[in-house]
Amino acid sequence: QVQLQESGPGLVKPSQTLSLTCTVSGGSISSGSYYWSWIRQPAGKGLEWIGRIYTSGSTNYNPSLKSRVTISVDTSKNQFSLKLSSVTAADTAVYYCARDLTYGPNAFDIWGQGTMVTVSS
Amino acid sequence: DIQMTQSPSSLSASVGDRVTITCQASQDISNYLNWYQQKPGKAPKLLIYDASNLETGVPSRFSGSGSGTDFTFTISSLQPEDIATYYCQQYDNLRAFGGGTKVEIK
User: Fold this and answer.
1) Residues of chain B with pLDDT under 70
2) A55 confidence band (pLDDT: 50, 70, 90)
3) Does A114 reach chain B within 8 Å, measured CB to CB?
4) pLDDT digits (tens, 9 = 90+) for B31-56
5) Dihedral sign from CA coordinates of A7, A15, B97, A42
6) Given an 8 Å threshold on Cβ–Cβ distance, is B43 in contact with A37?
7) Residues of B in contact with A98 (CB under 8 A)
8) Which residues, other chains included, contact B2 with Cβ-Cβ below 8 Å and sequence gap of 6+?
9) Rounded CA separation B34/A33 (Å)
10) A35 in B contact zone (CB under 8 Å)
11) In angstroms, rounded to a whole number, what is the distance separating the alpha carbons of residues A35 and A29?
């Protein structure tokens, strides 16, 4: 079955750009009517949706983060990626990638295990 | 933006108790609402979609109801394995989560 795995640096310096990749295995990222989303969770806090991408390259972002976020897809590698610029300590969180269905359950049905990113000098 | 407000933020109940969590949207979202369960150190798991539909494989003690702006999530008989944080999530306009409700055993 489809599985997602996040990867990237666990430590990013303030003002720099956070970059993460989500690798999709067990199925093609291009098959089906799916979006692919990024979600984050600061320690002890709730979930925040960051944004999503369709395999056509169409994107939607959380308005509160839109100015700093870029999500891209590489169908040849079965991956999608997140870039978050000008990071501060407030961006320290566990970052999840998730499959975002558009029909049936219009929901996040498959999640990665999450990767912790700390913003610190 | 649509804001999702969950209450309570935490609760303590005994095994076998009926547990109810509410979620309020800042505007009408029809039934475009999901519920997730998150256990410590794990990714969230979809339990309920379209406000009241049980995801495949989820025990029937979990249920959801509501439409418009007010929604309810219920565990009919709390079990020890239900200890987790529960989140509502709207998909009427982009995506947004409620703040979560931590459920503990008394």
Assistant:
1) none
2) confident
3) yes
4) 999 999 999 999 999 999 999 999 99
5) positive
6) no
7) 43
8) B25, B26, B27, B29, B90, B92, B93, B94, B96
9) 19
10) no
11) 9
